[in-house]
Amino acid sequence: MGAQWKAKHKDIAANAKGRLFGKLVKEIVVAARNGADPASNARLRLVVEQARKVSMPKDTLDRAIKKGAGLTGESVHYEHVIYEGFAPHRVAVMVECLTDNVNRTAPEMRVLFRKGQLGTSGSVSWDFDHVGMIEAEPAKPDADPEVAAIEAGAQDFEPAGEDHPAVFLTDPTDLDLVSRALPAQGFTVLSAKLGYKPKNPVDPASLSAEALEEVESFLAAIDANDDVQNVFVGLAG
Fold this sequence. Notes:
It is a single chain. By secondary structure, this protein is an alpha+beta fold. Among the domains are: 8-69, Integrase, N-terminal zinc-binding domain (Arc Repressor Mutant, subunit A, Orthogonal Bundle), CATH 1.10.10; 128-197, Alpha-Beta Plaits. 34% of the residues lie in helices and 24% in strands. It has helices at residues 16-31, 42-53, 58-68, 102-112, 145-152, 175-181, 209-223; strands spanning 79-87, 91-99, 117-118, 128-138, 156-158, 166-170, 187-198, 228-233. The longest helix has 16 residues, at 16-31. Residues 5-70 form the TACO1/YebC-like N-terminal domain. It comes from Variovorax gossypii. InterPro entries: Integrase-like_N (IPR017856), TACO1_YebC-like_2nd/3rd_dom (IPR048300), TACO1_YebC_N (IPR049083), Transcrip_reg_TACO1-like (IPR002876), Transcrip_reg_TACO1-like_dom3 (IPR026564), YebC-like (IPR029072). This is Probable transcriptional regulatory protein EJP69_27315.
């Protein structure tokens, strides 16, 4: 959960695929500013691979690349903005947004944070490490994540759990290099992106069931906002 919060409940995740496509389209548009060819644009290649893995329609993918590269005549500009603060019960949160209108997004974030506390820039980011995060699953039964992490050049890894794949952590500049190296170590890369890992995560067991539910509800409301790309939370597990 600390690496990147994801909705767990079926009712919350009902339109997850549509929202995922929307988020990936924004990522593709932004990445394609540096060139429409994934072979020479590492950031675009990583997002395109992720889009293909979740079966994004080819027309949608191609249109997003052309739009970002300025080949359609459309003028679109997404600004990268991070909001920092606390969920209920002082759980640190970093919210990563891509927005075409900060004047819309900022007041929406202020409203969403009313059940927690919206902080200023740097108020919680000091307690997170900026890292590359690669989700991957074994392509063969004997694939060892620890060996794969060492051989591929990752800094660390988090083993797979019941509801999430293994996560390989890298220096931000090594994200593409490690994601290219993992398949040779028996792992299939599911996603690769830059993110924030908490240094001192709160143990969910230290919160009551009611308190944890309040945190989950707060995070679900944040994640449902159309401008939100990723939510990084200071919770362990």
